[in-house]
Write a structure and sequence with these properties.
The chain is α/β, with parallel strands linked by helices. About 40% of the residues lie in helices and about 10% in strands. A hairpin with a 2-residue loop joins strand 4 and strand 5. Helix 1 crosses helix 3, helix 3 runs parallel beside helix 4 and helix 3 crosses helix 9. It binds magnesium ion.
Length: about 290
C-alpha cells in the first residue's frame, strides 16, 4: 500500500498553463509507449510514472537563461526524458523514432557523448546522479551564474550508498540550488522496495541528513509546481521532493506492477494502451518506419 501525501497549496498557475503541462505529460506517455514498443526493448513503467514531474520541470520550472541543469540519474527513464525535451522544442520530435537504434543519439540510457548540449551526465549505473549534480552546483556557485540544479532518482535507487554520501555532501556545502526529486512508486525491478531493502520513511531520512523535505503528489501538476516553488525559496539547504508516484501511471492494466519496470509492450499491448490514453487533435505522433503504431 502506497502512502498518500496531502496536496500542497498551489500558486495560481492559470487554467491554460495547467492544461498545457498536462498535455505535455500525456504526450510524453504516448511517445514513451510508442518508442519502447517500436524498439522492442526498454522501460515504460518509470517513464509513465514520471510524466508530470518531467513536464513540470521542462515545461515550467527550469530556465534556459541562466541555464538550469537537470540530471536524470535513473537513466532507464530515457524514453520520457527524450520525449519531454522534444516536446518543449529542444530535440526534433521526428528523432524520437530513432530511439535505441544503432547510431541514434537517443540511446537506451542517456549519453552525454551523443547529446553534449542537452544531457548533463551519462546515466545507467544507478546512484551516481546526485553526486554529479552536486559537482555541477559547486562549479556553478564558483561561476556565480545563479543556475539551479535538479536530479531525478527512483526510490529503489536510494538503496545505493553513494546517494547518501551525496546527500551529506549537498547539506554540508549548503547547496540550496539543488532539488532532488524521488519518484517514489514503492517498486523496483525485482519487486517492492519494502521487500528488497526497506527505505521508509524517506522524508525523515533526508530531514536527518539536513535537507528541506517536500512531499507532493507526483501526478498533481499544481502540487508539483508549488513544491518546486517552495524549494526555490529555500536559501540554506538542498531540497528533496519525495513525490508519490504510480509505476505505469495512465495505463491501468500496467499500473503499480514491478513486471512493467523493464519490459517492452508488444505492438498489440501498446495499441491498447494508446487507446486508453485517448486521442486528441493536439497529438503530433511521429512516424516510425516499418512499425504500424
Ligand atoms: Mg521505484
Amino acid at each position: 500500500m502506497l502512502p498518500t501525501f496531502p496536496t500542497l497549496e498551489a500558486p495560481h498557475l492559470g487554467e491554460a498553463e495547467s492544461r498545457r503541462l498536462a498535455e505535455i505529460a500525456r504526450q510524453v506517455r504516448r511517445d514513451s509507449i510508442r518508442m519502447v514498443a517500436a524498439a522492442a526493448s526498454g522501460h515504460v513503467g518509470g517513464p509513465l510514472g514520471a510524466a508530470e514531474i518531467l513536464a513540470v520541470l521542462y515545461g515550467h520550472e527550469m530556465r534556459r537563461e541562466p541555464r538550469d541543469r537537470f540530471v536524470l540519474s535513473n537513466g532507464h527513464l530515457s524514453a520520457a526524458y527524450y520525449s519531454v525535451m522534444a516536446r518543449v522544442g529542444l530535440l526534433p520530435v521526428e528523432e524520437l523514432a530513432t530511439f535505441r537504434r544503432i547510431n541514434s543519439r537517443l540511446q537506451g540510457h542517456p549519453s552525454r557523448h551523443d547529446l553534449p548540449d542537452l544531457v548533463e551526465a551519462s546515466a545507467g549505473p544507478l546512484g551516481q546522479g546526485l553526486s554529479f549534480t552536486n559537482g555541477l552546483a559547486l562549479a556553478d556557485r564558483l561561476d556565480g551564474n545563479g543556475a539551479r540544479h535538479y536530479c531525478l532518482v527512483g526510490d529503489g535507487e536510494l538503496q545505493e550508498g553513494q546517494v547518501w554520501e551525496a546527500a551529506m555532501t549537498a547539506a554540508h556545502y549548503r547547496l540550496a540550488s539543488v532539488t532532488l526529486i524521488v519518484a517514489d512508486n514503492g517498486l523496483q525491478i525485482d519487486g517492492t522496495v519494502e521487500n528488497v531493502k526497506a527505505l521508509r520513511p524517506i522524508g525523515e531520512r533526508f530531514r536527518a541528513f539536513g535537507w528541506h523535505v517536500l512531499e507532493p503528489d507526483g501526478h498533481d501538476i499544481n502540487g508539483l509546481v508549488a513544491a518546486f516553488a517552495r524549494a526555490r525559496e529555500e536559501k540554506h539547504r538542498p531540497s528533496v521532493l519525495v513525490a508519490n508516484t504510480v509505476m505505469s501511471k495512465g495505463v491501468p492494466a500496467w499500473e503499480d506492477q514491478a513486471a512493467w519496470h523493464g519490459k517492452a509492450p508488444s505492438l498489440e499491448e501498446a495499441r491498447a494502451a494508446l487507446a486508453v490514453l485517448g486521442e486528441s487533435p493536439e497529438h503530433r505522433d511521429f512516424p516510425i518506419a516499418g512499425v504500424n503504431l
